[in-house]
């Protein structure tokens, strides 16, 4: 290598060395060319060399125990990887895969050891680079995000989707270069239009090559007719937009002749028009069920404006941007009986402030709200589920313990399923707009169970099946009761899905120091003896409070509405509970915004980095 590329010359590994020292090391390196999808290193193999990225990009990924890959990081030109195996011995800790055509410089063990001995500055730079990486790991520092994403329109329904995405990126303070076959809806700083014709593919490839060299984030926005395997292979993610099974044919044809690994980059995005009832889940043809796509189908809602222009709803446009970046926000809603109504007040504030999530998990009452919210049911309608379906008729509310006896009758008479189906119909989890999980507990194995597939109402019924109110639900060798028995605040469920930032709402954190009219100051002779039913409910309160504290420690941000004055089993006080949720969210809103701004900051990514930035890699 006679001329040293600027991104290598200014990198952490070579930045402080003299030109002669850099050339001496690079002269001993071997050039390695990888096509998109090929591996530089494989997890578990013995490492005998390290690598420097000359051009292109790679991902650091782990093979999951249950199958599939978990992407840990992306590395850019000038970054290096693989040195840990040379320094400490042993096997590779992760896979390193080219996400586009990539050139590497390989330092074999002899070259590496000779460079350490002959060039002291090289050893010092390596130590400094490892120190920066370790500091990032300890502090939870940002990773390199996806830089090169394509939006392929497999439908004519929304030709302006790329423009909508670029507009929101700019609004959030991000910088992105766009190459599109459409004109932008509004002014976009760095927007280029493809010249149609035979040279379109070359124009796309040249655009990407230039962006990689200058470390720019890119969005390619094209009709499926321009989406050749060669172009798609140079992207880290392809958002393939469809609006039904009729728009899947071209994708099937592309993948039938595509190189191995391309399917894993493709995330299907299904456009769903906003309406009262969700359409059936999109059924994939057989040829699309064989390759492993990037993930489950991402359903996004749109509305048709007066100008006949289709626009994504704000919730789903923000989700699409985070999907592009490779970031997930998760929301965990805890159980607490009637106190779960407070979740609605929290969600009202978050929606008003434009704070949306990429997945949701719920336990018990939180499962009811999570399922309804994931189905796109409006919050006033979610409130109706509690006020109309879970409170006794006014004619009998005057009776002693009417709320408790009414709930007992709902469970004992099997009325709960009919009530929930009025809202959640026969939805399956793959119909939902938001990936959702509910929690239940199997008494046979004494383990929790996470539900994320199959019938939604059945999963909710299992999650709310409080042992005080009903017998276990017997199903497929399991005896299922309320998920709050083991996991009242389902942050663990989100962690297992590798969310980057989790918000939890604990409606059981506050517990009044009063039971059956007794307080800590009540003299023994004046204490009232509680009934059996009241004692069971109080035991539940104590259990939920302590479990929630245990699981709440795992989240990134905790909201805890003060619901202490509200009984566990009284669903007639919805107005007060919703207000408690609102007040909690309003009080914590500044802190939550600061935390989210740090988690989602665009200036932590490669698009705002210089070549002297620490590599922040995992390898």
TrEMBL record:
InterPro entries found in the cross-reference section: Acyl_Trfase/lysoPLipase, cNMP-bd_CS, cNMP-bd_dom, cNMP-bd_dom_sf, NTE, PNPLA_dom, RmlC-like_jellyroll
Protein name: NTE family protein RssA
GO biological process, one term: lipid catabolic process
Hydrolase is among the record's keywords: yes
Domain (PNPLA): residue spans on this chain: 331-495
Protein family membership: Belongs to the NTE family.
Motif (GXSXG): 362-366
Keywords linked to the UniProt accession: Hydrolase, Lipid degradation, Lipid metabolism
SUPFAM superfamilies in the record: cAMP-binding domain-like (SSF51206), FabD/lysophospholipase-like (SSF52151)
Gene (name only): rssA
A GO molecular function held by the record: phosphatidylcholine lysophospholipase activity
Residue numbers covered by motif DGA/G: 482-484
């Amino acid at each position: 290598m006679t001329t040293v590329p600027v991104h290598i010359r200014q990198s952490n590994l070579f930045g402080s060395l003299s030109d002669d020292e850099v050339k001496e090391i690079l002269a001993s390196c071997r050039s390695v060319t990888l096509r998109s999808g090929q591996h530089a290193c494989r997890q578990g193999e013995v490492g005998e060399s390290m690598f420097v990225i000359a051009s292109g990009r790679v991902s650091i990924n782990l093979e999951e125990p249950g199958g599939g890959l978990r992407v840990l990081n992306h590395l850019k030109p000038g970054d290096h990887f693989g040195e840990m195996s040379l320094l400490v011995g042993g096997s590779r800790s992760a896979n390193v895969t080219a996400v586009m055509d990539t050139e590497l410089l390989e330092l074999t063990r002899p070259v590496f050891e000779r460079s350490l001995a002959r060039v002291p500055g090289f050893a010092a730079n390596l130590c400094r680079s490892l120190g920066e990486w370790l500091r990032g790991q300890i502090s939870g520092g940002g990773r390199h995000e996806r830089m090169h994403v394509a939006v392929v329109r497999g439908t004519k329904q929304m030709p302006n989707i790329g423009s909508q995405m670029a507009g929101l990126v700019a609004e959030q303070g991000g910088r992105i270069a766009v190459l599109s076959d459409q004109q932008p809806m509004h002014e976009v700083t760095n927007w280029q239009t493809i010249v149609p014709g035979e040279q379109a593919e070359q124009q796309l490839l040249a655009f990407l090559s230039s962006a990689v060299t200058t470390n720019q984030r890119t969005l390619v926005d094209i009709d499926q007719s321009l989406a050749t395997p060669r172009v798609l292979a140079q992207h880290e993610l392809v958002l393939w937009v469809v609006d039904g099974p009729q728009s899947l044919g071209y994708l099937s044809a592309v993948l039938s002749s595509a190189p191995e690994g391309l399917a894993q980059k493709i995330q299907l995005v299904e456009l769903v028009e906003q309406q009262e009832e969700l359409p059936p889940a999109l059924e994939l043809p057989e040829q699309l069920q064989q390759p492993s796509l990037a993930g489950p189908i991402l359903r996004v809602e749109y509305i048709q404006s007066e100008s006949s222009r289709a626009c994504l709803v704000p919730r789903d446009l923000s989700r699409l941007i985070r999907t592009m970046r490779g970031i997930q926000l998760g929301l965990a809603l805890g159980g607490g009986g009637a106190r779960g109504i407070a979740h609605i007040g929290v969600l009202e504030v978050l929606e008003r402030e434009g704070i949306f999530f990429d997945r949701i998990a719920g336990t018990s009452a939180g499962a009811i709200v999570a399922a309804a919210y994931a189905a796109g049911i409006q919050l006033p309608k979610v409130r109706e589920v509690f006020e109309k379906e879970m409170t006794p008729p006014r004619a009998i509310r005057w009776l002693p313990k009417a709320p408790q006896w009414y709930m007992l009758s709902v469970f004992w008479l099997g009325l709960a399923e009919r009530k929930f189906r009025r809202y959640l119909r026969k939805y399956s989890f793959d119909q939902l707009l938001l990936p959702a999980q509910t929690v239940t507990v199997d008494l046979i194995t004494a383990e929790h169970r996470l539900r994320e597939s199959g019938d939604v109402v059945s999963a909710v019924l299992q999650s709310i099946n409080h042992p005080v109110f009903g017998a276990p639900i017997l199903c497929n060798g399991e005896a299922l009761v309320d998920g709050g028995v083991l996991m009242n605040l389902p942050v663990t469920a989100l962690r297992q899905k590798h969310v980057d930032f989790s918000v939890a709402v604990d409606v059981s954190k506050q517990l009044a120091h009063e039971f059956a009219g007794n307080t800590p100051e009540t003299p023994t002779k004046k204490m009232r003896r509680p009934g059996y039913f009241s004692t069971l409910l109080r035991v539940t309160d104590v259990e939920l409070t302590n479990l929630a504290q245990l699981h709440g420690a795992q989240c990134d941000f905790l909201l805890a509405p003060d619901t202490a004055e509200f009984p566990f089993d009284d669903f007639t006080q919805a107005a007060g509970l919703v207000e408690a949720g609102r007040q909690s969210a309003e009080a914590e809103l500044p802190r939550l915004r600061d935390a989210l701004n740090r988690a989602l900051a665009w200036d932590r990514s490669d698009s705002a980095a210089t070549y002297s930035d620490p590599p922040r890699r995992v390898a």
